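Can anyone check this?
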Amino acid sequence: MQTHLLGFSRMGKQRELKRALEQYWKGDIEGDALLATARELRIRHWTLQRDAGIELLPVGDFSFYDHILDMTAALGAVPERYGTAGEAVDLDAYFHMARGGQGVPAMEMSKWFDTNYHYIVPELAPDQRFHVDADRLLAQIEEAGELGAPLKAVLPGPVTYCVLAKSTTPDFNRFELLPVILQAYEELLAQLGERCELIQLDEPVLAQDLPAEVKGAFKTAYASLLKAASPAKVMLATYFGSIAHNLGELNGLSFDALHVDLVRAPEQLDAVLKALPEQARLSLGVVDGRNIWRVDAGKALDLIQHARNAVGMDRLMLAPSCSLLHVPVDLEDEIALSETIKRWMAFGVQKCREVAMLAATVQGTQGAQGVDVADWLEENRAAWTSRRSDETLHRKDVRSRIDALTPTMYARPVPYAERSLEQRERLGLPLLPTTTIGSFPQTAEIRATRRDYKRGDLDMEKYTERMRDCIRDVVSRQEELGLDVLVHGEPERNDMVEYFGEQLDGFCFTQNGWVQSYGSRCVKPPVIYGDVARAKPMTVAWSKFAQSLTDKPMKGMLTGPVTILCWSFVRDDQPRSETCRQIALAIRDEVADLEQAGLPIIQVDEPALREGAPLRESAWDEYFRWAVDCFRLAANGAAPETQVHTHMCYCDFNDIIEHIAAMDADVISLEASRSRMELLEAFRLFNYPNEVGPGIYDIHSPRVPSVDEMADLLRRAARVLPVERLWANPDCGLKTRGWEETTASLRNMVEAARIVRAELQT
């Protein structure tokens, strides 16, 4: 029963890759130093996996930015604007595709299925040419081979790659290119097939409802790919949900192994066993690759034994449910966590051991690193008993408040058409009002101040004064730039979710629980382990102080309940909807306090609303019913004259526009610059009734967009939506940017808005 992983973390325990990337981008180190750091991390991670009992090591899961971008580079499917046609993609061209550079904008980003990981969207043109380059993968296979362990190459599958791509022209169906993509894959697999025993092709799209254009595509695709990969065998890897509804797509294929996610969808096992090709191996994903709770060994062993009875042990493999990219590296580094809660958890290294121990249990062999199987099972059982019986996880006051909710608590007291008049009179804003999404650059000084305060090296009085100095500076800069609606800049916030979790009951926190979000951007998700409640106001003092510094409207900045839910590691002992409703009530209390403090605008961000949706649309109605209700519960207690904003980014709005409208926020700001306002088409077709702030510059790129570029985007937006309901703002928060580029970009944004405003008023 061979153990393996679908993938592992890239950043390193101490985010070593993040630091090397950012040094390289700044010009502080050369490419050779970056490559050396990457090699060291790969070898370290393979060694960790092997020592933990993983027998088949994944190669190709490492990336400098994103694995879909890596696939684009390997296929040579590079957009013309990057000037690498027919050539290998070097580091500079690679990062220009991801981040922009030399006056060329970056490629679009979007969310990887229902995760907070962002991938770079492939662009497919009608005359797309492919130039296969396997050198990166071959070099990593050679590196891993030095360890003497069996290897498995890991690649995104061709159907998923095509589904996640975008057409460069509206009238072009990108799926027409699938045969050409398959030819490129065949060439790539032919080179890999001689160098490793197994090639894993990830097709998570099988957990979704497949687009009509790819119905039947798997049979054509994999019939040719299986031959091209020989003598290597091919594993078709699926995850994030059940594939039972798409098993017909795999009929007649003789793939060598199939991986299924039995954490998200244990109910699919019988259907998969029935459809499994004769002699094919079945990889059971029984350890959760998406959350930090330890495996319930009893439940996992039941699934394994059921599969063993059906196909025999020799045809089984064991793995986590998906790549361990989505969890932190090692729980042993967490020395400050409560020992009670820590024993309920497992990070990446521990999940590798869990896979190995489950295999040892079934096979009757010694556990990894000499651990006795019986002792491990007893300890696992005791941990789960402790968690299930812990009374501190449930609070009667929180449950009683949920039971007392009424329908009126989910709705604004006055419809938008009426309350917008009151808001305009109160705010006195011009046409195309300018604002930002919330955060401003987090300098080294700001981070040091927060760090010193947490360590106890800075008392509350000095910390408050330094934070107020930062707020004074941000407000002054915004006034000098001429922005119409200001923010306090959020210097006190380490992260838009972690900051709130630190002040809510029911949360705990890690010291090194970093997870990659995109590129070098890492987040440290809080852990929701018990019932959630607000003990005291969380943001009011900072926002009230900021408003006292200016006569311009100041936004109070909050993170919405769905986003706090999705961007945390969530308890799995009750429905997610129940936890989300508890968070919503906490945010509702904060909205009321901000309003009482005189803030005329309150922004409740929900960038994760689309991300949290089930992969199959048939389950959307139930999800969006409670998700939208939670936003409304949190935000819609505001008075008519208080303007409620929300923010969303990096998702396809077309298929959820009705749910966005149901949120009934007065203003929604959204990411739109990379698509050059294409995303606004959904708002036009739906006749979206409220106000919209489409982002007119990409904050994930270091380049400063020109006045003309941003003015052009505003004109595009004005051709799609009523200008009296349009705002001008960046795509997202400015936390990760430097002051020089931020100031230059915002100055250009304000000038672009002034120019287009004048054009529209003549």
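Reply from J.R.: I decoded it. The two ends are 74 Å apart (CA to CA).
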